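Please review the protein record below. Tell me whether the encoded fold seems credible here:
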Amino acid sequence: MELAGKIAVVTGGAQGIGRAIAEALIAEHADVVILDLNPDAVSKTADQIGAHGAACDVTQPSAIQQTIADITNNFGNIDIWISNAGVISADPDHVASASDQIWQRAWDIHVMSHVWAARALLPEMIARGSGYFVNTASAAGLLSQIGDAPYSATKAAAISFAQSLAISHGDDGILSSVICPQYVASSMLGYDADDIIPDHPGLLTPANVARAVIDGMKEQQFLILPHPIVGEYAKLRTSDPEKWIKGMQKLRRRILSQNDGIDPKTMHLLV
C-alpha cells in the first residue's frame, strides 16, 4: 500500500509503539493524527513529531465516534486506523482472580475500541472501496501471556476480529493487519523513551517494531511479526497443542522457581 498522502490515525500514539508508528508514517509522508487519553502528552508528542493530536478515551464509543467525525471534518476521510492503545495487568492469584473491572477494561481497550472504530468507519470506507485497519495485538494473542489472563484472552479476540474484517470486507477493498510482537521496550514494560535499552534477546525497541509495521503495511500482510520467531512458535502451538502447553507449563515453573510470583512487566528478563 502506498502510504504517502494517506490520513492515518494512531490510538495510544503519545508514546511507545504508537508514537514510533506515527513517526514512521510521517517519514512516509502520511498525514498523521495521534490519539491518547492524556491531553497534555498527546499535545506534546504531536508538536514534537509533526503530527496532529487529540485526546480520546477509546473505552467510550461516543468519544471514538465524535473524534472520527472531528478528524473527518478537519482533515478529510480517514484512510488508515491503527488501534494501538493497550493495557497489561498481573493475575493476583489464579487465572480468573482479576476483578471484573480489569477484565472489562482490557476487553474495551483491546477489542471493543476496534469494533467501535470499525462501526463508525466501515460504511464510508466500503462506499469508496478502500480503507485499512491495523491492530497492535500481541504475540500473547497467538501464544498466551503467562500471568495475565485478561491480556491473553482479549488479544486473541482482537486477532479474531481483525480476521473477520479481512474475510468479510476484503472484497470491499478493506485491508486488515494485526501486529503481534513479543516484548517491546515501551512504557508498558516500564521503559521510558530515553532509557538505555538492555541488550536482551527478544526485546525490541518501538522503532524496530514500527519499521516492521511499515514494511508489513506496504506489503499488505495480515500477520505482521516484528519477532519472526513468533511465527515458528505459532506453528508449534497449532501443530502440537499438547506439546506446546506442556512447554509453557515448564516455562511457568522455571519462572516461579526464580521469583516469588509472575510479573508480566519483567518476564522478558527471565525467558
